[in-house]
Amino acid sequence: MQRKACAAFLAAIVTLALAFGSCKRGQSKLTPVVVNQAFEHLLYIALYVAKDKGFFEQQGLDVRIETGGGDAQAFSALTSESAQFAQGDPAFVAIANEKGWDGRVVAMAVDRAAVWAVTFDKSIKSFTDPIGFKGKTVATYPDPNTAYVIQKQLDEKARLVVGKDTRILQVPFGTELSTLQNKQADIAQTIEPNVSQVELQGGVVAFSYPDAYGPLAFTGVMTSKKLVDENPQVVQRFVTAYEHALQFIQTDFNGTLDIAKKRLPNLAPNVVQAALKRLIESGCIPKHAAVNAESWRKLLQIRVDVHDLKEIPTKQLFDNTFAESAATEK
After folding, report:
1. Domain for residue 23, yes or no?
2. What is the DSSP string of 9-23?
3. Looking at residue 174, what is its pLDDT?
4. Which residue in 17, 27, 38, 158 is deepest, having the highest Cβ count within 10 Å?
5. Which domain holds residue 146?
């Protein structure tokens, strides 16, 4: 009897060992990768879809998402090699290039200036021509933020003299809506989900910057040229998963919404739904991962205008080979 019990015990041990070994082998197939995002934000929905829908795992990657707390911090994680990828302002690749660091933008996460002008002033009707800013004070994020630069350029396009025909009020991030409440500004630039919250509170969208400004490289996925050269398979797998996520967003709104709600549990579900819908329909969330050359050129010109860049670089700092390969994959 003891012999049978011992045999059964040994068999159980062998079974557990085999199962554990099989599990370890399965885990070893996944390549660990770190991506550092500037913020936890609805704009980054493609990254969360790629993670939560298992697109990264399908590509053999075990991706850990870390949050830097800003574009500079996320990019610093990339240049220090504590992360293989960074998601944030892609202009940092061009700025770092002038300082001797070689990197590439390998996917586009946001391809529009994802800000809108909102107001609670019932006398202000929605407009599409920037001449509508005449006589208005507009709250924006501080110079050299892209939102400020775009506002200034649109004013100039409408031949409005800033300080005379219109006024730009520069305010810290997160305080823009308070300028409407205390009457410091007539109109405020803001991002989602603030835009949808304003609408639900009775305000209106006075002006759409994504519609007026068109394609603009607002947020990208960046990596080092070193990784591109030494381990292109990892870059390809990451970008392929990202491409699949972008395609999923375009074809399964409800599935995308479920992920957005889980990622942003503190927001009301109707706000998340309205915000996500606007980001997709406005083109802010691109249909594919490839970098639009015109979007990239416009971003670089903005950075030259605000003196972050000395000149538009002659080197090609985005690499679409991975995105183009991913887009053709069945």
Report:
1. no
2. HHHHHHHHHHHHHHH
3. 86
4. 38
5. 116-213
150 with 97, same domain?
no
**Residue 11 pLDDT:** 47
Helix (H, G, I), strand (E, B) or coil at 155: helix
Statement to judge: residues 40 and 187 lie in one domain: no
Question: Which tokens belong to 10?
Answer: 């040994």
Q: 322 and 229 share a domain? A: yes
Say whether both 121 and 150 belong to one domain: yes
- Close Cβ partners of 144 (under 8 Å, ≥ 6 residues apart): 306, 307, 308
State which residues of the chain have pLDDT below 50.
1-2, 5-27
Query: H-helix or E-strand containing 298?
Result: helix 293-305
Please check whether residues 310 and 186 belong to one and the same domain.
Answer: no
Length of the chain: 330
Answer left, alpha or beta for residue 214, where phi above 0 means left and psi between -120 and 50 means alpha.
Answer: left
Only one residue has tokens 């991975």, namely 322
Strands (E), 142-203: 167-170, 187-190
CA distance 303 to 145: 10
Q: What is the pLDDT of residue 28?
A: 56
Q: Are residues 225 and 286 in the same domain?
A: yes
- Please name the residue that has the structure tokens 């197939």: 29
The pLDDT, as a whole number, for residue 114 is 94
pLDDT of residue 307: 87
What are the CA-CA distances from residue 314 to residues 98, 214, 292, 297 (Å)? Answer: 11, 23, 16, 11
Dump the DSSP string for 12-79: HHHHHHHHHHHHHHHHHTSEEEEEEES---GGGHHHHHHHHTTHHHHTTEEEEEEE-SSHHHHHHHHH
List of residues 6+ apart from 252 with CB closer than 8 A = none
The backbone torsions φ and ψ at residue 187, rounded to the nearest 5 degrees and listed phi first, read -135, 145
**80 within some domain:** yes
pTM of the model: 0.85
Of the three residues 213, 245, 274, the one that is the final residue of a domain is 213
